[in-house]
Design a protein that fits this description.
Blueprint (H helix, E strand, L loop, with lengths): L13 H6 L12 E5 L2 E5 L5 E7 L1 E6 L2 E6 L2 E5 L5 E7 L1 E2 L7 E5 L2 E5 L5 E8 L13 E5 L2 E5 L5 E7 L1 E2 L7 E4 L4 E4 L5 E7 L1 E6 L2 E6 L2 E5 L5 E7 L1 E6 L2 E6 L2 E5 L5 E7 L1 E2 L7 E12 L6 E11 L5 E4 L6 E2 L6 E5 L5 E5 L4 E6 L1
Antiparallel strand pairs: 1-2, 2-3, 4-5, 5-6, 6-7, 8-9, 9-10, 10-11, 12-13, 13-14, 15-16, 16-17, 17-18, 19-20, 20-21, 21-22, 23-24, 24-25, 25-26, 27-28, 28-29, 29-30, 31-32, 32-33, 33-34
Amino acid sequence: MRAKNIASSLIYLALFVLFLAVYGQDNTSKLYPVVKNGKWGYIDKTGQIVIRPQFDLALEFHGEFAQIGLNKKYGFIDRTGKITVKPQFDIATPFSQGLAGVSVNGKAGFIDRTGRFVIKPQFESTGFSSFDQEVGLAMVSHEGKYGFIDNTGQFIIKPQFDLTRGWSEGLNPVVAGQKWFYIDKTGQAVIKPQFDDAASFSENLAAVQIGRKWGYIDKTGKVVIAPQFDKAGDFSEGLAVVEVEEKWGYINRQGEFAIRTDFYNAWPFVNGLAPVMLEPSRQYAIPDGTVIENVGNKWGYIDKTGKVTLKVEGLTDGIGDFIDGIAKIEFKDERIGYIDRTGRYIWGPTK
């Protein structure tokens, strides 16, 4: 599934960036990573293999390049499947603004599209990001603190933060001490420290935790939806997913429920549909009756009225957004497949 900014205690780590899309899905001649007999390649939206399965891991394309793994090292390929940067890195983030963050021998630096280091490995490999397309800065770690550099490797915002969630709409939620606050691209605190947790802005609102409950603020820091939810996520297409008493639903910008809390998990709307968990984890005894095995959950998609428009067949570990009419389906046994908007598999599931 794609990365979504559901408010939680996650740090914006390089390992997280490695497996999830940093800047959303890339719709240019979309290719989809698939696995067959333990090897990864790519299909097009018709389900035809366009890059044969040959890698130990294959990630989403961002622009013209994608990260691939071979022999526990990461490199890059182009859309023909040609290796453009040989696998040699322990971690690799997507290319952005012509540079990719990589880690080698425990240090992080940035390479160009030929694999040449433009910013030599000098930062801690525990956490770094690609260059953000909006503000042109990359997050790096130095002496256990996080800061932001430009494309020459110079610190624009010195390392001083304990955690950071990433840029959105020109602002970044950070914490240095006890309370979360928001900075702009110069590092200036534009919303003062006052929150127990904080998420990135989306559609001009951000989820924040005050005490034990989550609400929403605007860009002046004013609370516009009172803290009342157990968890809260991004606004997307005018609605935000929230949790109350372990059930999930959707609110509008006034904080009113537009879709009631009928779901066991839920994700933001993308292209008019949202993935939701219709039934929680099911557990079954294996034949001898001595072990209980969790085999997955029942997922589906809803429209903005809350109507279930598609139930995904079988018990799955998770389902993705429909991008260009195709969605990724993941199973607990590591199989993956892709369906179209009718629920028909165009690939797999395979592993």
